[in-house]
Amino acid sequence: DNVTLQIDGVLYLRVMDPYKASYGVEDPEYAVTQLAQTTMRSELGKLSLDRVFRERESLNASIVDAINQASDCWGIRCLRYEIKDIHVPPRVKESMQMQVEAERRKRATVLESEGTRESAINVAEGQKQAQILASEAQKAEQINKAAGEANAMLVKARAKAEAIQLLAAALAQQHGSAAASLSVAEQYVSAFSQLAKDSNTLLLPASTGDVSNMVAQALGIYSTLTKPQAARGRAEQPPAPGDVQAAGAEVPKAEQEDSS
């Protein structure tokens, strides 16, 4: 990518054949150094600037192989080559630092956005679960409330039916009317004590204080309502066998009188 670099390297050599090193080349150290530099230039030309810093080990191995292939006839063997330092131009270095900073800011922004996204998802999931649980709880509460009200109505109805049966049985006894009169009188006195508590305006009949008169009126209404039921019950009962026979006996007597 057309970036000028200055690289410092360390080269380790061993003379394997002194005769070849003395007569095969004029200056073996200089020759090996030049070979290392040219090999380094050719290998760096294949890489971009970012890969140079990541592939030092492969560069070192490539340079060692290239030197050993050329220096075999010189009686010299390259043991090791290491890149000591890489110098980058100041402007390129600033650009690289800016690139690194931008990359780090990008990562930070991405991580922050992912955290915000995860947080929003978690909050939404929590709200969803909370609404579902609240609706289920409200549904269960309404069902339990309706079941409780239904059971309460049934219990009240049964209790009222039993109370009516007990009351009817009590009224059918010998002193049932007297007990009913006492109950009506007590209720009348209790209601009379609650007058003028909610409002100051009252409309009362002239005989409000006459408890016996009010009880008599209440019992008269009760007897009036019960008489038609009693008459209807007697009308629905079938006639006794003796009554049928008596009626049949009277018919011939009447016919005898007509004939006479």
Automatic annotation (TrEMBL):
**What SUPFAM superfamilies does this protein map onto?**
Band 7/SPFH domain (SSF117892)
Gene3D superfamilies named among the record's database cross-references: Band 7 domain
Q: Which GO terms describe its cellular component?
A: cytoplasmic side of plasma membrane; mitochondrion
Please state where this protein is localized: Mitochondrion
Q: Which UniProt keywords apply?
A: Mitochondrion
Pfam families cross-referenced by the UniProt entry: Band_7, Band_7_C
- Domain of life, source organism: Eukaryota
Q: Which residues form the Band domain?
A: 1-100
InterPro entries the UniProt entry points to: Band7/mec-2_domain, Band_7, Band_7/SPFH_dom_sf, STML2-like_C, Stomatin_HflK_fam
User: Its Gene Ontology biological processes?
Assistant: mitochondrion organization
Which segments carry the region annotation Disordered? 227-260
Q: PANTHER family, from UniProt?
A: STOMATIN-LIKE PROTEIN 2, MITOCHONDRIAL (PTHR43327:SF10)
Function, please? Plays a role in the regulation of glomerular permeability, acting probably as a linker between the plasma membrane and the cytoskeleton.
Family of this protein: Belongs to the band 7/mec-2 family.
> What's this protein's name?
Podocin
Quick one: which gene encodes this? Stoml2
